[in-house]
Specification:
- There is one protein chain.
- The chain has 676 residues and is of the alpha+beta class.
- The protein folds into five domains: 158 residues, OB fold (Dihydrolipoamide Acetyltransferase, E2P) (Beta Barrel); 243 residues, DNA ligase/mRNA capping enzyme (D-amino Acid Aminotransferase, Chain A, domain 1, 2-Layer Sandwich); 57 residues, 5' to 3' exonuclease, C-terminal subdomain (DNA polymerase, domain 1, Orthogonal Bundle), CATH 1.10.150.20; 72 residues, 5' to 3' exonuclease, C-terminal subdomain (DNA polymerase, domain 1, Orthogonal Bundle); 71 residues, Rossmann fold, CATH 3.40.50.
- The chain has 24 helices and 21 strands.
- The strands form five sheets. Strands 12, 13, 14, 15, 16, 17 and 18 form a seven-stranded antiparallel β-sheet that branches.
- Helix 10 crosses helix 23, helix 12 packs antiparallel against helix 16 and helix 16 crosses helix 17.
- The N and C termini lie far apart (70 Å).
Length: 676
């Protein structure tokens, strides 16, 4: 079984067992067997990045991906955190932070908190009453779990003091260690299977279809962030927000400390590493945040994480095991990745049977050979990798492993490109590449064609019905109904799913095309700016490079993609098949009055939701980030504006414009009457 086939099988099996356990409350296999399958799938996806799917069951924490919960769009994105792995990297981070705001690292004050290994949650309160609770999801869109969260005993239904406006409380749902042990004691007493670990048990408990099931689980919620959505409150320091959360009745981390200066902060993170097993909950690191909110505003954000915070991950666990074989997989881009097949071993809490060897140079440098005893590590507690061979005196080693010169899938030569460490199969008709390209095209993060998984794509390829993603749109019911495993109904269903995919927005199509370096964020930026595929395909390189978030590497990749004849032909076939090829809300006829200008909106503007205001700015060529910087052209102020944004604008001398001038700004690109 190839890695691709194994991943497909594992995903199907895990989804089936998830439904049996979480939805029907009738486990179909022992928990230990389920855990082993889940760990194997995660190891494969980590080892072969091209096999990853953002909607894979491996990305779900316990509960299956279903339509049980309504989607919730977070008003402010729930970002990730950047990571450091030791004291030296943490010291370098604090130095960069201090330099960015022209401070001495020892003059800064940091909040140092445990990084709880649970499930991130957002709870919105309106005028002091709980309104909605949602999981983090992909950061932009989560799942509505309000009914279940209402059953968590330490989550306040109302905020004491009755604050007006909308307040969002973010934190982590978790199972305390003692509660987890008691749950498993009860499971044993009932003759049921034990839960695998606190994190997955907490996540699965929260995402139950029936809130009554969640109510029986001893879930807890720890708050670590207050987002003042309407700007109704006023704080100077992050620590003040944490005290406010405590006053409202939320549990906050008692082990958290405010530390003056970088060295004291680093010392406190060392304490957490030393005492990680003494805490009431599982942690996988420490979170460090700048306390001063004005300094945070100066530091701002990257596209995925705040610059004013980081997480120090604990050193990864290392184990030894036997290297059984070294094999090579071919991804959708043609990259040939060597990987180690191992005797299964538990590393950082999960069973690892495969581990990455990265590329040809790494195999040579580490000199690992089949039969060796090797050290296996989970880099960043996520991706299994082979670190080195353990020398065994008196044991004869196998011959040095050499990188193959031909593709294991198609037999064509493997080529190492200039200045790159990776090796590629450059045969565009390589079946391994083609299979993964089509599977990726149909995945949920792209065109979302249900029923078109790896096994089905492999069947269509072997039958000669498709040879490119564009061929999907020429499939007919009669073509499919004659195939093994198909009937009239299933053939009709798949053709209908493919037809539905023609209305997908341009951003999803760009993800599906698999253009090198273009992920969901870059795809959204490109689609928002150019609105139609024809405009993007004709864009000069300079126009691509000028976009925020699109650097020269991505720009060059996009530019080159649309100048290759095969790709132009594919786009023409998409158009002929009736794909929309545009981004909804593009409004290409609008004049680019705000081209190149950064406009920040704070507070509510009559006639516009927050998303509508941002869309209006984007449609006219501008950008509308969530923070004020030196690049900001002006700040538009509506009702109940954010105090931090106003303070930052005035500190930098950025014009502050009243909401009544917003329409004029959109129409002309200039402001007239700045506020004092």
């Amino acid at each position: 079984m190839t890695p691709q086939e194994r991943v497909a099988w594992l995903r199907d099996e895990i989804a089936r067992h998830n439904e049996a356990y979480f939805i029907h409350d009738a486990p179909s296999i022992p928990d230990a067997d389920y855990d082993a399958m889940t760990r194997e799938l995660r190891a494969l996806e980590a080892e072969f990045p091209e096999l990853r799917d953002e909607n894979s069951v491996s990305t779900k924490v316990g509960a299956p991906s279903t339509n049980l919960f309504k989607p919730v769009v977070h008003q402010e994105t729930m970002l990730s955190l950047d990571n450091v792995f030791d004291a030296d990297e943490l010291r370098q981070w604090s130095t960069r932070v201090a330099k960015s705001i022209q401070r001495d690292p020892e003059s800064l004050r940091f909040a140092v908190e445990p990084k709880i290994d649970g499930l991130a949650l957002s709870i919105v309160y309106v005028d002091g009453s709980m309104f909605q609770a949602a999981t983090r999801g992909d950061g932009r869109v989560g799942e509505d779990v309000t009914a279940n969260v209402r059953t968590i005993r330490n989550v306040p239904r109302t905020l004491s003091g009755g604050p007006r406006g909308r307040e969002e409380v973010r934190g982590e749902v978790f199972l305390a260690r003692d509660d987890f042990l008691e749950m498993n004691r009860q499971q044993i007493a009932l003759g049921a299977k034990e839960f695998a670990n606190p994190r997955n048990a907490a996540a699965g408990s929260l995402r139950q279809k029936d809130p009554a099931v969640t109510a029986k689980r001893p879930l807890s919620f720890l708050a670590y962030q207050l987002v003042d959505l309407d700007g109704a409150l006023s704080f100077t320091y992050y620590s003040e927000t944490i005290r406010q959360l405590g006053d409202w009745g939320f549990l906050t981390a008692s082990e958290s400390r405010l530390e003056e200066g970088a060295e004291a902060m680093i010392h406190r993170t060392d304490w957490f590493q030393e005492h990680r097993h003494d805490l009431r909950y599982d942690i996988d690191g420490v979170v460090i945040k700048v306390d001063d909110l004005a300094q945070r505003a100066l530091l701002g954000f990257t596209s995925r994480a705040p610059r004013w915070a980081t997480a120090r991950k604990f050193p990864p666990e290392e184990r030894t095991t036997r290297l059984l074989a070294i094999e090579v997989s071919i991804g959708r881009t043609g990259r040939a990745t060597p990987y180690a097949v191992l005797e299964p071993v538990v590393v950082a809490g999960s069973t690892v049977s495969m581990a990455t060897l990265h590329n040809q140079d790494q195999v040579v440098a580490k000199d690992v050979r089949p039969g060796d005893l090797v050290i296996v590590r989970k880099a960043g507690d996520v991706i299994p990798e082979v670190v080195a061979a353990v020398r065994e005196p008196g044991k004869r080693r196998a011959r040095k492993w050499t990188f193959p010169t031909s593709c294991p899938e198609c037999g064509q030569p493997l080529v190492r490109r200039d200045s790159e460490s990776d090796t590629y199969c450059v045969n565009p008709t390589c079946p391994a590449q083609l299979l993964e390209q089509i599977v990726h095209f149909a995945s949920r993060g792209a065109l979302d064609i249900e029923g078109l998984g790896e096994q089905r794509v492999a069947q269509l390829l072997s039958e000669g019905l498709i040879g490119d993603v564009a061929d999907l749109f020429t499939l007919r019911v009669d073509d499919l109904a004659a195939l093994e495993g198909f009937g009239e109904l299933s053939a009709t269903s798949l053709v209908r799913e493919i037809a539905n995919a023609t209305s997908m927005p341009l951003s999803r199509l760009l993800v599906g095309l698999g253009i090198r370096h273009v992920g969901p964020v870059a795809a959204r930026e490109l689609a928002t700016r150019f609105h139609h595929l024809a405009a993007l395909a004709a864009a000069p390189l300079e126009a691509l490079e000028a976009l925020d978030g699109i650097g020269p590497v991505i720009a060059q990749s996009v530019y080159q993609y649309f100048r290759e004849e095969d790709n132009r032909e594919r786009i023409a076939r998409f158009s002929a098949a009736g794909l929309s090829l545009d981004e909804p809300g593009g409004a290409t006829s609008l004049e680019a009055t705000l081209a190149g200008k950064v406009v920040v909106v704070t507070g509510s503007i009559e006639g516009y939701s927050r998303d509508d205001a941002e869309a209006a700015i984007l449609a006219r060529g501008g950008t509308s980030p969530g923070s004020v910087s030196k690049k900001t052209y002006c700040v538009v102020v509506g009702e109940a504006p954010g105090a931090a944004k106003l303070a930052k604008a005035r500190e930098l001398g950025i014009p502050v414009v009243g909401a009544s001038e917003f329409e004029t700004l959109l129409a002309t690109g200039v402001w007239k009457d700045p506020l004092a």
